[in-house]
Inverse folding.
């Protein structure tokens, strides 16, 4: 392997690591009421704010919120479409032990 391709591999690995660090816990809600309370704690009020699903781009409201992904400096919302929640399920197993 040449020196430059080794370097490229290293850079690529760093990039993937960075992305993984950004996704901390994924939380699915059983009850809408819990979702609202939790979102308000994170200073997100879906009644007055427009937020969009990170996967499909649809507007996320208290009626269709499916999950949220908390990162160090942001919270990403996911709607409750089956395809979008499936994406979350792919992410979740990677981070189950990150927080207690
Ligand atoms: Zn979606």
């Amino acid at each position: 392997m040449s020196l430059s391709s080794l370097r490229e591999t290293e850079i690529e690995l760093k990039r993937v690591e960075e992305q993984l660090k950004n996704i901390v816990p994924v939380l699915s809600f059983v009850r809408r009421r819990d979702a609202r309370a939790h979102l308000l704690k994170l200073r997100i009020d879906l009644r007055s704010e427009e937020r969009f699903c990170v996967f499909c781009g649809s507007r996320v409201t208290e009626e269709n919120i499916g999950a949220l992904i908390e990162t160090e400096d942001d919270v990403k919302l996911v709607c409750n479409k089956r395809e979008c929640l499936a994406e979350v399920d792919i992410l979740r197993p990677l981070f189950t032990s990150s927080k207690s």
In short: The chain has one domain: 24-95. Residues 24-95 form one domain.
